[in-house]
Design goal:
Layout: E1 5-6, E2 9-10, E3 14-19, E4 28-32, E5 35-41, E6 47-51, E7 65-67, E8 70-72, E9 79-80, E10 86-88, E11 106-109, E12 112-116, E13 139-148, H1 152-159, H2 165-168, H3 177-180, E14 182-189, E15 192-203, H4 206-211, E16 217-227, E17 231-239, E18 257-269, E19 272-282, H5 291-317, H6 338-351
Antiparallel strand pairs: 1-2, 3-12, 4-5, 5-6, 7-8, 8-9, 9-10, 11-12, 13-19, 14-15, 15-16, 16-17, 17-18, 18-19
Helix pairs in contact: 1-6
């Protein structure tokens, strides 16, 4: 499908702008793809997303007040309806033509508030990504929004190269076999890039041993699936040692024990990114008394990743040779790069308007 791009961002897509519980009847300011947006919730519960600047003197509307279905500017009291039209200017009769701000299409589903950042005429709510486990009463979850001081491409690279788990996360979910003993498969097509890593009869990493059924050896797998512009499903599962049959179907489920991780990556600007992250697991997987520590360990994992992204961005910014997240100019490529290189090529084709 064709897309328009601004600041190297794909525009004609849904991006997560907030968690559902972040948006209330108070204005919420957020920058997405370089656009300043104000969110608020109407009395009927529906969410509004408007350009965050008054049409008069450009004061952010997020400094104003929500009044019923409308929002009022804090400077001169101009009132805007949910469509972005100015419907009242205190002290005068009538409103000048063109007194309006941009209104963005919004979809709320499975705790995500998604915003269409491109041509509103192309927005179809059925195309908005959702992760149903976050709304499944049979599953528990933990979530967070992170403000990452790095370009979104560095995050996409990370999530399609899970060999890093062996080193960045070796105090919790990682150990050497994740990198050394994995059978890795990369597939791209139908608008996704998918990486699977299967490890057979390997030592159990700390988090798996502490909360799962295996204490010494097991079979383990990871599946990371990327859907543009910035959505990831990461499935983690395990089974008894040496139980692999060569059937890849088991990689799509938890096996004897497992969990799923979701990432929604929304650029803020060229050097800052919103990362909406959640981990979900069946209620029977983790005992209620153990969930706080299980969740803590995974929040540690995501914090460790953020440190990597931000250190990379700093290195790019201070290199002095014109490198960037768009082109890091790696001196070499390694086998673990296969997935991220496929994603980079997919993004490039979408920027060119190529059907994938």
């Amino acid at each position: 499908m064709g897309t328009c791009v601004s600041g190297n961002f794909l525009r004609d897509y849904w991006y997560v702008g907030a968690w559902s519980d972040e948006v209330t009847d108070k204005p919420l300011a957020r920058t997405l793809l370089g656009d300043s947006i104000v969110f608020y919730r109407k009395p009927d519960g529906n969410v509004v997303a408007l350009e965050d600047r008054c049409a008069h003197r450009r004061l952010p509307l997020s400094m104003g007040s929500v009044i019923g279905e409308t929002i009022q500017c804090a400077y001169h009291g101009l009132v805007y309806d949910p469509a972005g039209r100015c419907i009242k200017i205190p002290g005068q009769d009538g409103v000048p033509a063109g007194a309006r701000v941009r209104s963005y299409p919004v979809v709320e589903r499975n705790q995500f508030i998604s915003v269409w950042m491109g041509d509103a005429a192309k927005a179809e709510d059925t195309a908005a990504i959702s992760f149903p486990r976050l709304g499944d009463p049979g599953w528990a979850h933990s979530k967070v929004r992170l403000e990452v001081g790095a370009n979104y491409l560095l995050i996409i690279d990370n999530l399609l190269d899970l060999s890093h788990v062996a080193y960045v996360h070796n105090s919790t979910i990682g150990n050497a076999p994740v990198a050394e003993n994995a059978v890795v498969k990369t597939t791209a097509g139908n608008g996704t890039v998918r990486i699977t890593r299967e490890m057979v009869n390997v030592p159990v990493a700390r988090t798996y041993a502490e909360f799962g059924p295996y204490k010494r050896l097991f079979d383990r797998w990871q599946l990371s699936e990327y859907t543009p512009p910035g959505y990831f499903l990461i499935n983690n599962g395990c089974a008894p040692p040496n139980s692999a049959t060569g059937d890849d179907s088991r990689l799509h489920g938890p096996g004897e024990w497992g969990f799923q991780v979701y990432h929604c990556i929304t650029p803020q600007d060229e050097r800052h990114t919103h990362q909406f992250w959640a981990i979900a697991y069946a209620n029977a997987t983790i005992a209620p008394a153990a969930r706080a520590e299980f969740n803590r360990q995974h929040h540690q994992v995501i914090a460790e990743d953020v440190a990597i992204y931000e250190a990379q961005q700093c290195a790019l910014d201070t290199s002095g040779d014109g490198v960037s997240a768009e082109d890091v100019r790696s001196c070499i490529s390694i086998q673990a790069d296969a997935g991220l290189l496929q994603a980079r090529r997919m993004i490039a084709r979408l920027r060119e308007g190529t059907v994938i």
